[in-house]
Amino acid sequence: MSKLSDYSKFDHLDDSDSDGEQGATAPVTAPRALPTSLPSSAVPPSSPSTGGGFVRHPQHEARFILQHEGRFIYEWEQSLNEVTLYIPTPQRIEERALEARDFVCDILPQTLRVGLQRHAGNYFLNQATGGLIDCAASTWTWEAGVLTIELQKANKGVVWETACRGGGSAPPVSLDPMQLEQERQRLLLERWQEENPGMDFRGATFNGSVPDPRTYMGGIRYD
């Protein structure tokens, strides 16, 4: 596994070894609307969490915030089909305004790398992802200091326990058991809503443990 950064938000980029994994750099797409939770000044202060640093976002129920040693790192959320990360970045370097082309975002089948072109081979984020990615269908955009990365799940309905697994100087992170159970329930309801558009599953609850959204009752339909 490659050496990881110290989560210093592009301030101090460490050297990184080369992963042998093959994949393509995801295309830059047209900017889309940014999340209302950024910039990071709006993020609440860190609090203890058994989820290895994940705190549920106060305004977006489905979104989680990763903090490390009091520093805001990124936000992430998932649906049946994709995982989306929101990473705050510099807007200027040495008095020069940055553009989308200044960033590197390599999306590999099981690895995400994020950095700056001027620091070739060095990354702010270089970690294994929480699940297998469909690289060709994944995209990223950058606008107003926010890098938005959409990772298409290779296996629809799989519940990711984390967006990126951490490692090196970055501690491993994952949702705690309660958060994970809540995500299973949310994605299972999303699946039922998708398969039964005439019904409303909002507010539905489960007795006992929540079944796997991908495999429950014959598995996800792809028609």
From TrEMBL:
Q: Where is the composition biased (Low complexity)?
A: 33-44
List, in alphabetical order, the GO biological process terms annotated in this UniProt record: protein folding
Tell me the PROSITE patterns matching this sequence: CS
Q: Where is the composition biased (Basic and acidic residues)?
A: 1-15
**GO CC field:** cytoplasm
Gene3D superfamilies tied to this protein: 2.60.40.790
Positions of region (Disordered): 1-54
| InterPro entries given in the database record | CS_dom, HSP20-like_chaperone, NudC_fam
Q: Mention one GO molecular function.
A: unfolded protein binding
Segments forming domain CS: 69-164
Protein name as annotated: CS domain-containing protein
